[in-house]
Amino acid sequence: MNQCKRILIVDDDPNIREALKAYLEFEGYEVRVAGNGKEALALLQINDKPCLILLDLMMPVMSGWEFAKIVEKDAMMGQIPIVICSAFVDKAEDIKARGHLSKPLDMEELMGLANECCPAK
Fold it and tell me: How many CA atoms lie within 13 A of 54 on its CB side?
């Protein structure tokens, strides 16, 4: 079975990106970060695909909504589970997401979703 342990964090707040990255790396995940949807799409084109995308909605350049629409239409990227991590989760009903986490994030809930999407075995 695939043992993917890669997570992509897409959030325009550098403090949130770095805190989540440090926490998830401590938990054994390989983490990539992007400051907006455009950066995230570029990473998805050049790197190994993650097992999970943690997606903020309100970002400059390319919002989470715009990013999700592009990803959902792509045959390969559309298979990657997305978890919305935003203060505006109630506005994400049009995104096919595996889960929704309100900011500030509940780390126990986050780890549950990460373990579900990126099983160790």
Answer: 32
Query: Which pLDDT score is estimated for 92?
Result: 63
What is the token pair recorded at 11? 């959030």
Q: For residue 89, is pLDDT > 80?
A: no
Residue 51 is assigned to a structural domain of this protein = yes
Three-class DSSP category at 94:
coil
Q: What is the CATH number of the domain that holds 108?
A: 3.40.50.2300
Q: Find tokens 């325009």 and name the residue.
A: 12
Domain for residue 64, yes or no?
yes
5-9, 30-34, 73-77, 87-91: lowest mean pLDDT where?
87-91
CA R_g for the chain: 13
Q: Which domain holds residue 86?
A: 6-117
Query: Residue 110 — left, alpha, or beta (φ > 0 → left; ψ -120 to 50 → alpha)?
Result: alpha
Domains: count for the chain = 1
What crossing angle do the helices spanning 37-46 and 64-73 adopt, rounded to 10°? 30
Helices (H) and strands (E) in the chain, counts: 4, 5
Question: What letter would DSSP give residue 49?
Answer: P
